[in-house]
Amino acid sequence: MWYLNLKANPKVQVQIKKEVLDLTARDATDEERAEYWPQLVTMYPSYQDYQSWTDRTIPIVVCEP
């Protein structure tokens, strides 16, 4: 549901330590996905299992200013 909420309202706030950033969320492009997916699977190996359990593409969200 968090993904659908971001699609409905892509304005987000991200806090990193004491810094709060106002950003806009969007779906990763195909090129970004090709770059980010292997990095995500390296950090979180269970993502690969999760992807294998479904026919849909697991969304990758990019947040930018």
UniProtKB/TrEMBL annotation:
Record key words, sorted: Oxidoreductase
Reaction catalyzed:
oxidized coenzyme F420-(gamma-L-Glu)(n) + a quinol + H(+) = reduced coenzyme F420-(gamma-L-Glu)(n) + a quinone
Q: Which GO terms describe its molecular function?
A: coenzyme F420 binding; oxidoreductase activity
Record EC number: 1.-.-.-
Gene that encodes it = ddn_3
Q: Which Gene3D superfamilies match?
A: Electron Transport, Fmn-binding Protein, Chain A
> PANTHER family from the xrefs?
DEAZAFLAVIN-DEPENDENT NITROREDUCTASE (PTHR39428:SF3), F420H(2)-DEPENDENT QUINONE REDUCTASE RV1261C (PTHR39428)
Offer one Pfam family short name for this entry: F420H2_quin_red
Protein's recorded name: Deazaflavin-dependent nitroreductase
Q: Which InterPro entries match?
A: F420H2_quin_Rdtase, Split_barrel_FMN-bd
